[in-house]
Amino acid sequence: RHGLDPHHPWPVASNKTAGRLQHLVITRGADGGTIFSANGQTDYSSPKVVQVDATGAGDSFAAGLLEALIEKATIEKAVSHAAQWGAITASRVGSCCDAEGRLYPPFAAR
Q1: Closest by Cα among 18, 19, 37, 17 to 78
Q2: Average pLDDT, the chain
Q3: How far is Cα 86 from Cα 48, in angstroms, rounded to an integer?
Q4: Which of 29, 58, 64, 91 is close enough to 82 for a disulfide, judged by CB 3.0 to 4.6 Å?
Q5: 0.70 exceeded by the pTM?
Q6: What angle (nearest 5°) sits at the alpha carbon of residue 58, between those of residues 53 and 59?
Q7: Which residues have a catalytic role annotated?
C-alpha cells in the first residue's frame, strides 16, 4: 500500500519525494478530480461527454497533462487540457486518433 489518504494525500506524497513534488493530481473520471499542492487543493471538472469506452482515458489524461506542462502551462491549464483529452478518449470506441492523427488538439492551439 502507498499509505495515501485519498482526501489528504499531499503530506505522504510530498514526504515520499523528499519535498520535490510540486503537484499531485487525483482523477475521478467523469467526476473530475483534485489538484493537491503545498498550498492546498483545487477541484476541477471534466468535460461532459457521452461515455462510449473509457479504455485508455486515464492514459490520454496523463499524456495531455505532460504535453501541456512541457509547453509551460500552469497546472490548472494543464489539467483542463488533460481532462479534455481524457474526455475525447472516453467518448469514442478505442483510444486512437483519426486517420490524420488529429483527434487530440495540441496545447499550443488552445
Answers
A1: 37
A2: 88
A3: 11
A4: 64
A5: yes
A6: 105
A7: 56-59
